[in-house]
Design brief:
heterodimer, A: 341 residues, alpha/beta, Rossmann fold, Alpha-Beta Plaits, 2 domains, 6-stranded mixed sheet, 4-stranded antiparallel sheet, 14 strands, 29% strand, B: 222 residues, mainly alpha, MetI-like fold, 0% strand, elongated, binds adenosine-5'-diphosphate, binds magnesium ion
Chain lengths: 341, 222
């Protein structure tokens, strides 16, 4: 049984004086298996935040079904929902730490809510502070912590009641690249070491690439594409997905870049696409070397995704026309190629 | 300036009046403060997006507060005198003044409380909801602690305003420093007596303001 199951979920915000009603989520189906990390990506206003807030019922669902661990939550009352929320952690873009409480006090809060005895609280908070590497900051207030430290406190707080599901809404968007990597690494540990299922929302494809197993693309309240990260990155179907993929993967040079490259590099331009482990670069280049051609790598790159590699490399091949033609033919059996005009 | 003064015979009355002012203001601050806190909380939580969002309740509360708050205090005393007779059993004297002050303070404080609560980051309330905290618990353990610094400053401000308002107590036979200054200073052309009362009031206000600032600073850790 899936840990999370959304069926035909709608969320409409009623019109406020003079305005129009907003259909933030329109007919979303989503299944998340236990142990997965799912990335939900989309532009601002796509309905991502609203969608996750339906999962822990911070917003009420207009219609459709939301099942958490098999339990339908759309029909529960506030009192019962509080119980469900104890089993779902959440972290936020702006961290949302209680400024009147120390790091310790922040992490202890969910335990107080859950009615955990003092002695146990003590042990748990201490363990969590160690897990997130902030044992020395236990008595610091949020305004004495850096952004990365605040988010680590946020993560510890979200994990306090040992939830099975963690919701992360733009949890690294307020952080610099280095700190982002730290927080993503911590989230990977949360998933691997604690077996916690994670739903990350982001507008940064890089976060999806480095963290998620599966990606869901949202546009205007709908899921427009989903699949394994490697598949979606290597063969994006929808324009919005292609734009997102384009932010982290160099596909091929645009016309202007191509013209500039041609001035500096002689020969024919060929794009080679690598997908997963099927083809080794060494094999492809080995084949090219059998022919009497010179080649240069002029554009592209190789990405790492969940242990797989993929990417596009554009080569400029120079030499006798017949030799170049033979070389291109030769590698065509190994990888998809495309001649750039 | 004529400094002919009766001050030397009036010292016992000075201390009696100081005590009365403190007593009136303190009781008012506690009762009005509590009432104002509840009213302010109600104004806040019924707002759009609030924990107990209710357009009707919020509109009713707003009309209610806006109706009473602008009434000048000296008129307010007279207006609530019949109510004072019912509630505290008497329409004149310190008890009646405390009653009127408490009501007036509650309306004023409710706005101060509401304004300070609005500055609390909605994100922290969301965070508390996300871990399954109940709404009353959120009010008690998140909302008020997060707004505590400004709330203390707000209540300090109210204390000073109450000292000011309590000076009018004499009109319904209440006591205190204000009444003392008017009766034994101003009406007797005894400038020294007037200024003695003034200085005590100033000293009192200073001490309270300083205490409030210190407390707020400690809470805000600045
Ligand atoms: N509480 C709300 N009331 C009214 N409209 C809202 C509310 N929350 C979000 N919306 C609207 O719903 C749409 C989706 O917003 P959101 O879920 O925050 O998108 P995202 O997280 O993808 O940027 C937006 O048009 C936004 O203005
Ligand atoms: Mg959002």
């Amino acid at each position: 049984m899936a840990l999370l199951e959304l069926r035909d979920v709608y969320k409409t915000f009623p019109a406020v004086r003079g305005g129009q009603a907003v259909e933030a989520v329109r007919g979303v189906d989503l299944t998340v298996e236990a142990g997965e990390i799912v990335g939900i990506v989309g532009y601002s206003g796509a309905g991502k935040s609203t969608l996750v807030r339906l999962i822990n019922a911070l917003e009420s669902t207009t219609s459709g079904s939301v099942r958490v661990d098999g339990q339908e939550i759309t029909t529960l009352r506030e009192r019962e929902l509080r119980q469900v929320r104890l089993g779902i952690g959440m972290i936020f873009q702006q961290f949302n730490l209680f400024s009147s409480r120390t790091a310790w006090g922040n992490i202890a809060y969910p335990l107080e809510v859950a009615g955990v005895p003092r002695q146990e609280q003590h042990q748990r908070v201490s363990d969590l502070l160690h897990f997130v590497g902030l044992a020395d900051k236990a008595h610091s207030y949020p305004d004495q912590l850096s952004g990365g430290q605040k988010q680590r406190v946020g993560i510890a707080r979200a994990l306090a009641t040992s939830p099975s599901l963690l919701l992360a809404d733009e949890s690294t968007s307020a952080l610099d690249p280095e700190t982002t990597e730290e927080v993503l690494a911590l989230l990977r540990r949360v998933n691997r070491e604690l077996g916690i299922t994670i739903v990350v929302i982001t507008h940064e494809m890089e976060v999806v690439r480095s963290l998620a197993h599966r990606v869901v693309v949202m546009e205007a309240g709908r899921v427009v594409e989903e699949g394994r990260v490697l598949d979606v990155l290597s063969e994006p179907q929808r324009p919005v997905t292609r734009r997102f993929v384009g932010t982290i993967v160099d596909d091929e040079p645009d016309a202007e870049t191509l013209a500039a490259l041609r001035e500096r590099h002689p020969g024919r331009f060929v794009k080679l696409s690598f997908r997963g482990h099927d083809v080794r670069q060494s094999e492809v280049f080995g084949r090219l070397l059998r022919h009497d051609v010179r080649f240069e790598l002029v554009y592209g790159g190789i990405e790492e995704v969940q242990g797989d590699t993929f990417g596009n490399l554009t080569l400029a091949l120079d030499g006798a026309p017949a030799a170049v033609e033979a070389a291109i033919r030769d590698v065509q059996d190994l990888v998809p190629t495309k001649e750039l005009g | 300036m004529d400094l002919d003064t009766n001050l030397s015979q009036l010292w016992p009355l000075v201390w009696q009046s100081t005590y009365e002012t403190l007593y009136i203001v303190a009781i008012t601050l506690v009762l009005g403060g509590l009432l104002g806190l509840l009213l302010g909380l109600a104004l806040y939580v019924t707002r759009r997006g609030g924990l107990y969002e209710s357009r009707v309740a919020n509109a009713v509360l707003n009309v209610f507060v806006n109706f009473f708050r602008p009434i000048p205090f000296v008129i307010f005393i007279a207006a609530v005198q019949p109510l004072a007779r019912v509630v505290v059993g008497i329409g004149i004297g310190n008890r009646a003044i405390i009653f009127a002050l408490t009501l007036a303070a509650a309306f004023g404080i409710s706005r101060i409380v509401e304004q300070n609560l609005v500055t609390v980051d909605p994100g922290v309330i969301e965070a508390a909801r996300s871990v399954g905290a109940s709404r009353p618990r959120i009010i008690r353990t998140v909302l008020i602690p997060e707004a505590l610094g400004p709330l203390i400053l707000g209540y300090t401000f109210v204390f000073v305003a109450l000292v000011d308002m309590s000076a009018i107590a004499g009109v319904i036979g209440g006591g205190g420093l204000g009444n003392f200054a008017l009766q034994y200073g101003y009406r007797q052309f005894d400038t020294v007596v007037t200024w003695t009362a003034v200085l005590i009031i100033v000293a009192l206000v200073q001490v309270v303001q300083l205490t409030g600032n210190t407390l707020a600073r400690r809470v805000l850790r600045r």
